[in-house]
């Protein structure tokens, strides 16, 4: 009985020492993952040192990923949304697998099943909210979608409640604390991965430029920080990532700001990148076509007197979006890397090198998207705070779904308001 009591205290006690945590988590860390470099590359680079071999492997795979990125951009926003969904699932799988390797050693029930069930519930909630918000006319036109939209939040809550009850029923005596650790693990993973991946989709629907430029800035910063650090790095930046240097951090910042200005200038001239994704009732398809907003129309700006003598110009023509791109690239360079530092701390806590070995030389998908998720949240907040205003088309769509008497009431209210403002008379005269 005494041994049983001590064992239960070890599992369910309130202390939080590292030694106790190691005991609860199986007594050993998960086995570090290793990169599976293709045999072709191993043979081709066999004469190089490990440092230069890693440089070439990372470089070749980076070019391959950039090529794939260009291909999916060409295929359009719906394919991009599908890819984001696939990346989200893979990232979730990589993080949950780390927890499962710990949890599985105790042969406790339902952890993996419940984790994937909660992923399904959260995705159902977010995708339902997104479809209703951005494609309201499509939802109202189809009877099944209209019913699902009307009771969407109740259905989502009922699905989550089912999973919650399943978790409570799965609790096993002497392992309560570990099971609640894993319950929290799943929910934190959902918060980090699923929530932020849907913010990426929201950014995409605002216009592909809000999706491509931020992601490209993070990619550019990652590449240029690595290049500057590889060739010039001498001063360590942070203990969590010993290979990161101040030279790479600073060089990556300036290169990314310049890259963001150039990329945004090129993309601002194309409607397919600047227009939001909308559903066209006439063609029953998703379209990307509009009259460009002021953000994407060339404006003339006066150069400060201090700089006029240096550059030799008095004015400069540029897109207003380029000014916003400076904010995006600055965040990608100065704050975005902290997403990577956070991931490095997580991996060190569990003594693993990478989240997985999906991409040779780069680790898992989560190793490539740790900064992207933080960037996606910033872009969404930035759009909501400084860019997005009331959307007349969405108001009209909702107005047309009301009953005729409700439409008439709103019409009379709006008419009275315009008369009071003195605007209706001037419009009638015009």
TrEMBL record:
Domain of life: Eukaryota
GO biological process: CDP-diacylglycerol biosynthetic process
GO molecular function, one term: phosphatidate cytidylyltransferase activity
Membrane topology: Multi-pass membrane protein
Residue ranges of the region described as Disordered: 1-38
Localization (cell): Membrane
Pfam families noted in UniProt: CTP_transf_1 (PF01148)
GO (cellular component) term, any one: endoplasmic reticulum membrane
Catalytic activity: 1,2-di-(5Z,8Z,11Z,14Z)-eicosatetraenoyl-sn-glycero-3-phosphate + CTP + H(+) = 1,2-di-(5Z,8Z,11Z,14Z-eicosatetraenoyl)-sn-glycero-3-cytidine-5'-diphosphate + diphosphate; 1-octadecanoyl-2-(5Z,8Z,11Z,14Z-eicosatetraenoyl)-sn-glycero-3-phosphate + CTP + H(+) = 1-octadecanoyl-2-(5Z,8Z,11Z,14Z-eicosatetraenoyl)-sn-glycero-3-cytidine-5'-diphosphate + diphosphate; 1-octadecanoyl-2-(9Z-octadecenoyl)-sn-glycero-3-phosphate + CTP + H(+) = 1-octadecanoyl-2-(9Z-octadecenoyl)-sn-glycero-3-cytidine-5'-diphosphate + diphosphate; 1-octadecanoyl-2-(4Z,7Z,10Z,13Z,16Z,19Z-docosahexaenoyl)-sn-glycero-3-phosphate + CTP + H(+) = 1-octadecanoyl-2-(4Z,7Z,10Z,13Z,16Z,19Z-docosahexaenoyl)-sn-glycero-3-cytidine-5'-diphosphate + diphosphate
Documented EC number(s): 2.7.7.41
Pathway: Phospholipid metabolism; CDP-diacylglycerol biosynthesis; CDP-diacylglycerol from sn-glycerol 3-phosphate: step 3/3; Lipid metabolism
Keywords: Lipid biosynthesis, Lipid metabolism, Membrane, Nucleotidyltransferase, Phospholipid biosynthesis, Phospholipid metabolism, Transferase, Transmembrane, Transmembrane helix
Coarse class of the protein's main subcellular location: membrane
UniProt biased composition (Basic and acidic residues): 7-23
Class of the enzyme per the UniProt entry, highest EC level: transferase
Residues that span the membrane, as ranges: 110-127, 154-172, 179-201, 207-233, 245-267, 321-343
UniProt family annotation: Belongs to the CDS family.
Protein name as annotated: Phosphatidate cytidylyltransferase
Organism classification: Eukaryota, Metazoa, Chordata, Craniata, Vertebrata
């Amino acid at each position: 009985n005494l041994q049983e009591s001590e064992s239960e205290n070890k599992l369910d006690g309130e202390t939080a020492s590292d030694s106790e945590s190691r005991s609860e988590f199986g007594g050993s860390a998960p086995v570090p993952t290793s990169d599976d470099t293709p045999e072709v590359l191993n043979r081709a680079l066999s004469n190089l040192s490990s440092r230069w071999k890693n440089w070439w492997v990372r470089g070749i795979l980076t070019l391959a990923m950039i090529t794939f990125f260009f291909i999916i951009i060409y295929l359009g926003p719906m394919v991009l949304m599908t890819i984001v969904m696939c990346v989200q699932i893979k990232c979730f799988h990589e993080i949950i697998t780390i927890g499962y390797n710990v949890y599985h050693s105790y042969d406790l029930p339902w952890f993996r099943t419940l984790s994937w069930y909660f992923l399904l519930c959260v995705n159902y909630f977010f995708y339902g909210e997104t479809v209703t918000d951005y494609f309201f006319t499509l939802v109202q036109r189809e009877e099944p979608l209209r019913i699902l939209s009307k009771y969407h939040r109740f259905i989502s809550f009922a699905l989550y409640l089912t999973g919650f009850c399943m978790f409570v029923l799965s609790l096993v005596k002497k392992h309560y604390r570990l099971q609640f650790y894993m319950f929290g693990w799943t929910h934190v993973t959902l918060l980090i991965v699923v929530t932020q991946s849907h913010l990426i989709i929201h950014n995409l629907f605002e216009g592909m430029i809000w999706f491509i430029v931020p992601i490209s800035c993070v990619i550019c910063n990652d590449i240029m920080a690595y290049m500057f650090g590889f060739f010039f790095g001498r001063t360590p930046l942070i203990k969590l990532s010993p290979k990161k240097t101040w030279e790479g951090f600073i060089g990556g910042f300036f290169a990314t700001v310049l890259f963001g200005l150039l990329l945004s200038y090129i993309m601002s001239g194309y409607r397919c990148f600047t227009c939001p994704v909308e559903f066209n009732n006439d063609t029953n398809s998703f379209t990307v076509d509009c009259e460009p907003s002021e953000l994407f129309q060339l404006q003339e700006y006066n150069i400060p007197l201090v700089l006029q003598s240096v550059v030799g110009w008095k004015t400069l023509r540029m897109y207003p979006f380029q000014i916003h791109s400076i904010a995006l690239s600055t965040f990608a360079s100065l704050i975005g890397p902290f997403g990577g530092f956070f991931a490095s701390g997580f991996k060190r806590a569990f003594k693993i090198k990478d989240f997985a070995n999906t991409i040779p030389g780069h680790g898992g998908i989560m190793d490539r998207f740790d900064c992207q998720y933080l960037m996606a949240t910033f872009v969404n907040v930035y759009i909501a705070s400084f860019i997005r205003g009331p959307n007349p088309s969405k108001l009209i769509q909702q107005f047309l779904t009301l009953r005729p008497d409700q439409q008439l009431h709103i019409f009379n209210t709006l008419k009275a308001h315009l008369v009071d403002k003195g605007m209706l008379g001037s419009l009638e005269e015009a």
